[in-house]
Amino acid sequence: MKASDALTPKLRFPEFEGEWKSVPVGDFFDLADRAEKAASFEKEKLLTVRLHANGVTKNEKTTLTGGASYFQRRAGQFIFSKIDLLNGAFGVVPAELDGFASSSDVPAFSFNTKHAPAFFLSWLKSSYQRLEIERTGTSSTLKRVSPEAFLKVAISAPTKAEQQKIAECLSTLDELIDAASQKLDALKAHKKGLMQQLFPREGETLPRLRFPEFQDAPEWEQKILGGLSTIVRGGSPRPIDGYLTKLPDGLNWLKIGDVDKESKFVTQTEERVRPEALSKTREVFPGDLILSNSMSFGRPYILKIRTCIHDGWIAVTCLSKLIDRDFLYYAIGAPSSQSFFNDQAAGGGVKNLNADIIKSLAIAHPTVAEQQRIASCLSSLDDLIAAQSDQLEALKTHKKGLMQQLFPSPVEAEG
């Protein structure tokens, strides 16, 4: 590849020609602009950069160190963390944090008028994980990127007009992503509110909202989950590495990491175990419900596959004819059920559920016909949420691919 090729992106707007130039990052900033030292200020006025979030926030929990120097920051300045720049800890000081202060470990620079700030930010978001910058320091976990080293990093830049065009294009995509994200949040909030209305609150046996065709239906009954199903715990053959196999006769082996936390169904596993493990584990089947009994416990999932489960799972099997499977899924996930699990879970730092706690969960339920109507309504809403989530991920993927096309690969700084 010719050196000039590295300075030109794969995709350009048709109205622009000419080779991009390699300039140092410092060319985007007014380096003569010096920050005013903050002699004293309230802790609530401390400014930090959020790790992994490309954003700026105030941090009221930070302990101020007497030996550190603090400087006032202004709205619109670029700010980054020396320690976590390469993890995405950078952003622009928002208007509401104008006048806040940060330590010398979180430096800030004012943009000049030679370039488009939005172009620089888009480039950095697409490149920070690939930048080759020497970090210095005695501790491997606290090595820092010096401002001097960062300002020498080379960036390929076109004319300011082309920079602005690229930034506008990506800004339009960001607006679409934000709108899709807001719609997804709104759908999730609607579902949460609807479940609070469709299921009885804790200590009650009737919901606040019923479908019109069931207004005159009998009152809901209440039974413990153990009276409506069989509750069993998984089992773990040990050492598990001795039972793992890639042979076709292996049995599915479900781990916590195999399950998408936002999903309703379990559809696959990454690993399999040898058939001999069956005597030391538990096999569950399509249609069974499973719940994790530790960490993010109590969140139900419906199996679509036959699999073995370890002792970190509890299965709800052999459902009574009085209960609809999909209704039970939503009933276990309802706020009152989740609140019960949180209250009953044992443990200090890490709380745990056990089979007896899950068996004792009170499940209020109407007739099967009304159960199916409720489940159908919520399933339709879940389908909308899944479709919106897919749309959001598609937009993010499109933006990521577009940024790879609109920006050349990072060019190493000379010298």
Walk me through the structure.
- The protein is α+β, with helices and mostly antiparallel strands and 415 residues long.
- The chain folds into two domains: 159 residues, Alpha-Beta Complex (Adenine-n6-DNA-methyltransferase TaqI, Chain A, domain 2); 145 residues, Adenine-n6-DNA-methyltransferase TaqI, Chain A, domain 2 (Alpha-Beta Complex).
- It is 31% helix and 17% strand.
- The chain contains nine helices and 21 strands.
- A five-stranded mixed beta sheet has the order 11-20-17-18-14.
- Helix 2 packs across helix 4 and helix 4 runs antiparallel to helix 9.
- It starts with a helix and ends in a 9-residue tail after the last helix.
- The relative contact order is 0.13.
CATH class of the largest domain: Alpha Beta
- Average pLDDT confidence is 89
Strand fraction equals 15-25%
Order of strands side by side in the largest beta sheet? 11-20-17-18-14
Short description:
Residues 19-188, 219-394 form the Type I restriction modification DNA specificity domain. The chain has helices at residues 3-6, 117-127, 147-152, 160-198, 225-228, 325-333, 335-344, 355-359, 368-406, and strands spanning 21-24, 47-50, 55-58, 70-72, 78-80, 90-92, 101-103, 108-109, 154-157, 221-224, 230-233, 244-245, 251-254, 265-266, 271-273, 282-284, 289-292, 300-303, 307-309, 313-317, 362-365.
Structural topology:
Elements: H1 3-6, E1 21-24, E2 47-50, E3 55-58, E4 70-72, E5 78-80, E6 90-92, E7 101-103, E8 108-109, H2 117-127, H3 147-152, E9 154-157, H4 160-198, E10 221-224, H5 225-228, E11 230-233, E12 244-245, E13 251-254, E14 265-266, E15 271-273, E16 282-284, E17 289-292, E18 300-303, E19 307-309, E20 313-317, H6 325-333, H7 335-344, H8 355-359, E21 362-365, H9 368-406
Parallel strand pairs: 13-19, 14-18
Antiparallel strand pairs: 1-9, 2-3, 4-7, 5-6, 5-8, 10-21, 11-20, 12-15, 13-15, 16-19, 17-18, 17-20
